[in-house]
């Protein structure tokens, strides 16, 4: 779980969610009725409360009654669900194209999926056969994101368009992968600040697949709900650690270069897109929780209470890797997770993390099946995720408390313009 790539500081403009407000009345619009809880409180959610993954200055908490008014935009330069702040609920699902389905069927499917995503993100009903699951809710900052796996290109006759950056990830010593829950031809990420809204989108996407594609695997995740803390702050993972301190920010001068593909660095159809690495990382919580707080902090390299580096300061203070104690020992241990994953120790490798926690029940021996649905974004996974994970394999103190159980790599094209569907430049180019 590389620390170097977690969101910090201000919420970027691209993460501000547009409140679903009728400009004529000033009231929020739900799927079939006006919401009475929109207005100014919706703006607070968009600007701060929705950015759960970003460390921010204290601000007025967002009332939970306004959560439904947050709205992300489907059409744009980039697909939604990348630069927005963490959402309270998420679903990841991978599909394989059905036998006999090819480029034509894939194009029709992406066209259906894009139309459905656009409507649901606006707080409207699905285009057909709506289930009414989210009938009374607003958009709830719903985002739906689509990507292509390695096998998609062979099944659609587009092998020549498959980017080199999508080559399968190498094996890592920490892998214990279940191949049935890894990879896939198509990948969909769904996030929302309301569980019913997120499930409604998942169900609509599944129904839209029809006979063209079949579910390969599906995973469910969650984060802290907006408004659950006195002020917006970096989220915590199931180990109790602040998980988001050093993420690249859209305001950074080199953010686009590190996170998004340009026409000069990738195929034209991937311009303004990104690559998503998806890993199901089980946390061995019984072992972790047996450690003292001091021992946990030594493993991570940061204080558990506030995320500050063990070298001193607060959460946003630059870590001093050379600082020692009275005995000459490094304050941040040499195998601390935060030390190993620093970009300046990995050739500048950077990733934008947008994870979800998960809990899939308790095993017969009482062990919780819980951990992190790790999702990270980068312009080139061979320069982003791979070198950092290799280094973690060689000596990360955290590695004995986690287990990588599933993996996937997906090419996520740029956003669809008005009147277009996601992936149109690839499938109709």
From TrEMBL:
Family: Belongs to the DyP-type peroxidase family.
Textual note on the cofactor: Binds 1 heme b (iron(II)-protoporphyrin IX) group non-covalently per subunit.
Protein name: Deferrochelatase
Record SUPFAM superfamilies: Dimeric alpha+beta barrel (SSF54909)
Occurrences of domain Dyp-type peroxidase C-terminal (ranges): 234-416
Pfam families in the record: Dyp_perox_C, Dyp_perox_N
InterPro entries documented for this protein: Dimeric_a/b-barrel (IPR011008), Dyp_perox_C (IPR048328), Dyp_perox_N (IPR048327), Dyp_peroxidase (IPR006314), EfeB/EfeN (IPR006313), TAT_signal (IPR006311)
Reported cofactor(s): heme b
Known function: Involved in the recovery of exogenous heme iron. Extracts iron from heme while preserving the protoporphyrin ring intact.
Superkingdom of origin: Bacteria
Region (Disordered) location: 1-29
GO function term, MF aspect, one: lyase activity
PANTHER family given in the database record: DEFERROCHELATASE, DEFERROCHELATASE/PEROXIDASE
Matching PROSITE patterns: DYP_PEROXIDASE, TAT
NCBIfam families: Dyp_perox_fam, tat_substr_1
Enzyme Commission number(s) of this protein: 1.11.1.-
Catalytic activity: heme b + 2 H(+) = protoporphyrin IX + Fe(2+)
Gene assigned in the entry: efeB
Organism of provenance: Streptomyces albidocamelliae
Location of the Dyp-type peroxidase N-terminal domain: 79-223
Highest classification ranks of the organism: Bacteria, Bacillati, Actinomycetota, Actinomycetes, Kitasatosporales
Subcellular location: Cell envelope
